[in-house]
Specification:
Length: 231
């Protein structure tokens, strides 16, 4: 007999928190003038939180079946992205040297005049190339690349991490759970919802799952996927 799935002690809400953190700093970046010192402070916090998204995704998901093999493909995709690689370098450079390689609009850095807020290549640094374009626009574009991986994970592993799927027949069948297992999962005594509802449309099992859905965890990740990917 197939064993019932036991959830590891880490949930997708941790990833959602980190995405929320990156979203917060990106919004602050959009609303701060590049000549304000806070702009660099915010960018430093942003690239750190952006990098943490994939770290937390691995931490949360690594104990789920087949995730490690799944992630290797996505990890290679991010590594091959010049933009994602550049933002990793920005994070590392900021942490190791304290230098944020951003030239505000109408400024001169390394002998070059910048009429818009862009990245520049610091002298004698490991950074040899920077992406062209607005700092804010590139920052959001990089977040989108990371969120595309998260969205794929949310879809491919939905029975484990999407609370909207757990409380369905497909969800519990995939986990080899019973409705009683779901009751116990949400803190309700086993068998509490067991009754004959005598419904002509839905089975007792479906009705019980619908009742239990109200006691499950809130879905917090979709709002960010909708904000950045639903375009």
């Amino acid at each position: 007999m197939e064993k019932k799935f036991v959830f590891p002690n880490a949930g997708i809400h941790i990833v959602s928190w980190k995405i929320g953190e990156a979203d917060y700093f990106l919004e602050e970046l959009k609303n701060t003038h590049a000549h304000d010192d806070k702009f660099n402070y915010i960018f430093s916090a942003y690239v750190s939180s952006l990098r943490s998204i994939t770290f937390t995704l691995q931490y949360v998901m690594t104990k789920y079946p087949n995730f490690d093999d799944w992630y290797k493909i996505r990890q290679e995709r991010l590594r091959s992205s010049k933009l994602a690689k550049a933002f990793v370098e920005f994070r590392n450079h900021a942490q190791k040297t304290g230098i944020i390689p951003i030239a505000p609009e109408n400024s001169i850095y390394e002998g070059i005049f910048y009429d818009s807020t862009q990245f520049f290549v610091p002298t004698n640094s490991q950074i040899k190339e920077v992406p062209n374009g607005s700092v804010v626009e590139l920052s959001e574009k990089c977040l989108v690349e990371v969120l595309n991986v998260v969205a794929e994970c949310y879809k491919d592993f939905d029975i484990y991490i999407d609370p909207r799927v757990l409380f369905t027949e497909r969800g519990i069948d995939s986990l080899n759970w019973t409705v009683e297992d779901v009751e116990e999962y949400v803190g309700i005594p086993r068998g509490y919802t067991n009754a004959d509802f005598n419904d002509a449309t839905l089975s007792n099992r479906q009705i019980r799952l619908n009742l239990l859905r109200n006691h499950g965890g809130d879905e917090t990740l979709q709002q960010f996927l909708d904000k950045y990917l639903a375009q």
